Amino acid sequence: MAFAVLGDAGPVGLVTIAVRRRRAGAVGPDRALRVVRARAATVDEWQDAHEAHGASYFHGPAWARLWERSSGGAVRLEPLVVELCDGSSAVVGASSVPTRLPGVRQTTLSPEGCAGGFVGAVPLDAVQRAAVARWLAGRRSLLWRIGAVDADLHEVVAPVGRVESTHLIDLADGAEGARSRFRSSAKRSARRAASAGVVVRRATGARDWETYVRLYADTVRRWDTPLGTYDERVFELLADEPGDGVSPLPGGARGRACAGEIVLVHRDHAISWHGATDTSAVPGSFNLLEWEVVGDLAADGVRVYDLNGSAGLEGVVAFKESCGRGRRPCWPSRRRTPPSRSPALPAARPRRSRPGAGASQPERLRRRRLP
Question: What's the pTM value of the predicted model, to 2 decimals?
């Protein structure tokens, strides 16, 4: 985790999805490949597939389980296994959430408007992935945000309406390569913050999380019209997530917290989920934070750092552009018919996970904080 400007605070830019059609007469080898069966999956099946082949933290059960716990069971994990006619299969990371209609629920492939999807039980090739994506796109009452990590599916599923964007920092050539793409203004701001005494360190326990929650509360109070806010319970649960338990946080003079950001890591992919900053503290603190986070993630073998969506906030977009200008589209989707009339997916009632399942997840929850 690290402190930063808030990205997505909830579902944004949700629009209808449709299958992208080929030109008349064009027939590809994937047209014959189709889903022939769907069944409820266990959370264990979901976890195992995600550990082996998951694309991002949001594709796995830990994220959905967080919201199941924080909502008191209002969010339900309902993963599916879909089987293709060639014998391959994928686990769809589905959950259901309440709607404004009494007794009516909505299926989502990642709670809180994040970019989730499906995971191959074994690695899937492009043709198999396209077949699963087409099947999902044909479901009704389904919320699916297709992120940059699944950019190949943008050729299969086309949005109707406004397309969100995210920003990627490429770490394939290491921290120095990524930092060289920061704009000069961002580099100067980071240097000024460092000269003013701001430091970045990793969180070490509950007190750091409490500091972050206070900083977030101060951030929310400055907003005129918040897009959405999170209860303190969410951060308490994040603090309890299994992982290496480290998160950097920049600090200013006399140990005053300046900014922080929660970064979720799975395998070689990291994504920024949440952030907070004190604009009255030390200017440039967040620039320094991202500078140090990039170095930390690169040292741990992360190759892609996704800064996540910006909810159309121009100031947030401008900040992320200053960190490397790696803008990428993020396909939003929306239910195609009222959920009460047409359920999206077969009802999934997975068995409970085996005791201790997920306790040794490969995801690492970075908690970056100021002193």
Answer: 0.80
